[in-house]
Amino acid sequence: MTYCVGLMLKQGLVFMSDTRTNSGVDNISTFRKMFTWDVPGDRSITLMTAGNLATTQSVVSLLEERSKEPGERQPGILEEESMFQVATMVGNLLKEVIATHAEAGQRADSTFNATMILGGQIGDGEPRLFLIYPEGNFIEASFDTPFFQIGETKYGRPILVRAYDPEMSFEDAIKLLSLSFDSTIKANLSVSLPLDVHVYETGSLRNGRLFRIQDNDTYFLALSSGWGIALKDAFGQLPEFSFPEP
Amino acid sequence: MTYCVGLMLKQGLVFMSDTRTNSGVDNISTFRKMFTWDVPGDRSITLMTAGNLATTQSVVSLLEERSKEPGERQPGILEEESMFQVATMVGNLLKEVIATHAEAGQRADSTFNATMILGGQIGDGEPRLFLIYPEGNFIEASFDTPFFQIGETKYGRPILVRAYDPEMSFEDAIKLLSLSFDSTIKANLSVSLPLDVHVYETGSLRNGRLFRIQDNDTYFLALSSGWGIALKDAFGQLPEFSFPEP
Fold first, then answer.
1. Which residues of B touch A174 (CB under 8 A)?
2. Which of B161, B181, B229, B241 is most worth mutating to test chain A (most A CB atoms within 10 A of its CB)?
3. Which residues, by range, are in coiled-coil regions (chains A, B) (predicted)?
4. pLDDT tens-digit map of A18-71
5. How far is CA B243 from CA A34, A40, B234, in A?
6. Is B3-236 a CATH 3.60.20.10 domain?
């Protein structure tokens, strides 16, 4: 499993992804699921992946190939002129990779499927955030629906819905995402630290802060234990229930 | 969809279930998913159901039939001598009903499946809580795993995991379950008020408080809006994130 969230703020975009992959509970590994590209002054692009690892790695390798050898397969992720065109390209690539593997072998339903979150900004365009489906089509976030989740999305959703604020600072956004990940990690063994984080500031047109929250990160641990206490306090402050008259 | 929780406390058992059933988003109805039986001084039994409505109603009708005409099909739910035997009987009945319908018609995977939470106390036995699978087998709760959820379980789980305490009062348990249901209702259209509640007090050997939290319940509404504010406060009290040194 996997958990990734892309969050749209007035200030920019924040991405967080876990790094655990598993094929059964006795076969777990750590793989990066967040990939970034930039051409300073022109664009910053972030891609996060969930689903079949062979599929997602293949898509990313093809994108890397395209980005490294721009002459070979025009236009690559560094040449497309808008985020919409990048999303279209990534969607097509994803669909092709799934189709290729599905032809060759196993027919099991959705085995080779993958879903992706793509976000970034190119040139004069606004920052944009997309959710790309295995069929190659995609939807775009707006301030009505300001975040996308992929993978194990449910445990971490209530806190996002309750505490998200489009005006929040990047620091608060990372705190919020950390809580959402903590709830998910507590409930699903196949989601785990370390977590990759990328913070893109609107208009900067270059990758922003990119870092990894490690297993033993003191802030994350403090947040996790503090949240348990804070939730109990919050619970205590709510009005008491009293039984209805029989 | 459905959401039901059975919770084990030192003081007794608390059950809560929603009442929405749906077959597509344009075909929703209200059906009771919680059923109780008691013989005062001897036993109290509660059953909650999730899954195919035809299956669950059929199981409950058969149980009612058995309970109403004890001579016909011995022993019924009011005659079994332990909660374990009741769980075995309900599990077998569930398996039979699924098998009967599966033979007759549609072959779609898991279409007729259902899952149930069964709890109660009989005679000198301890209060017991079971989760019954469509295959007819079941698992039992203990204070290591003091609650069972069926239906749309994920959204409402983090708050249960964080705030549950085996020593908590019935009033606090209902408050906690209400929050868990509120998180679920906010995220999944196919879970909805009214909610049915049953509180069974250990050793009472009769049904306890049985009531319905209606759509316009002022306590539930106050809790729901208060929880949003309390969560934001709790969020604000947690330590601030600061970016690592580059």
1. 241
2. B241
3. none
4. 999 887 778 888 999 999 999 999 999 999 999 999 899 999 999 987 666 556
5. 19, 21, 21
6. yes
